[in-house]
Structure formats: structure tokens, C-alpha cells
Amino acid sequence: MVTKSDIEKKIFSTFSDVATSLGYSSLHGKIIGVLLVKGKPMSLQELAKETGYSTSMISLSSDLLEVLGVVKKIKKTADRKLYIELSSDLLECLKNAIILKSRKSIRNTLQDFRSMERKIEKLPPEERKNIKKTISILEDQIKRLDKYLKLIEEIKLPTHS
């Protein structure tokens, strides 16, 4: 017999898998899953209990999720605890996370190309020419990808019905 707890664990696991597939920690996904399932702001302690991670790990992971716009931290009146809640549309947050991660990868790749260009100066002229040509082709494709990301960034997602 399937229990509510089994279903919740499956949801947490699914969000964890999505987060890791995007290059983020599985904890980031679990935090999102817990907040979505519970449907209310939760304290760091409550999130730690639900995810099995320490409050310090929850705090650290929620910092990145806040930067990505996925969650926001709130204080409740007459309560010293820090609470975390989902801040906006998850699909919009997912789009932003993918774009941020892709842009970082593009920057790193272009920096790597610059570094390679300096290193290949010591190679024989014909070999250097071939490598420069390859780098140029790859650089053009990376810049094309960056243009595509800009278009995706401008797309407004449909509202949920």
C-alpha cells in the first residue's frame, strides 16, 4: 500500500533528480520539493528534518536558491526563526536557472579558448593554423548559443491555468 510519505519522498526525489541534472545539488531540489508539497513557509529546522540534511546545509543551499529567485527568506512576527518559502513560478525559476548555468558555462568556455590561443603560439605554424580554425568555429557556435539563450530569456511563459 502506498502512503502519503511514499508519495512525498518520490516528489522530493524527482526534484532532486532535476536539480542534479542541471548541475545543482540534490539538496536544492529537495528543498523545492518539500516547500511545494507542504505549501507553506518552513523553518530551516523543519526543512532539515524533512530532507535529512543539517540546518547549516539548508541555510547554505537556500542562499543559492534565493539568488536564483526560487525562494525567499522571511521572518514571522514574534518568532526568531528564519523561514523559507517558494517565491514565484517554478517554471520561470527553472528557466532562469538553466540560463544562468548556461551563461556561466559559455563564459568559462570562451575564457578557455583565450587561454588555448596563447598556449598554441608555441606550436608549428600549420598545426597552430588548424587549431585556431577549430577554435574559431567552436567560438562562433558558442556565440550562436548565447544569442539563442538571449531569445529564450525574453520569452514570457504562459500563466498557469
Q: What keywords describe this structure?
A:
Arc Repressor Mutant, subunit A; 7% strand; 161 residues; three-stranded antiparallel beta sheet; mainly alpha; 2 domains; 70% helix
Secondary structure topology:
Elements: H1 4-21, H2 26-38, E1 42-43, H3 44-51, H4 55-67, E2 71-75, E3 82-86, H5 90-119, H6 125-154
Antiparallel strand pairs: 1-3, 2-3
What does this structure look like?
There is one protein chain. The chain is mainly α. The protein folds into two domains: 83 residues, Winged helix-like DNA-binding domain superfamily/Winged helix DNA-binding domain (Arc Repressor Mutant, subunit A, Orthogonal Bundle), CATH 1.10.10; 65 residues. It has six helices and three strands. A three-stranded antiparallel sheet has the order 1-3-2. Helix 1 crosses helix 2 and helix 3 packs across helix 4. The radius of gyration is 21 Å and the shape is elongated. The protein starts with a helix and ends in a 7-residue tail after the last helix.
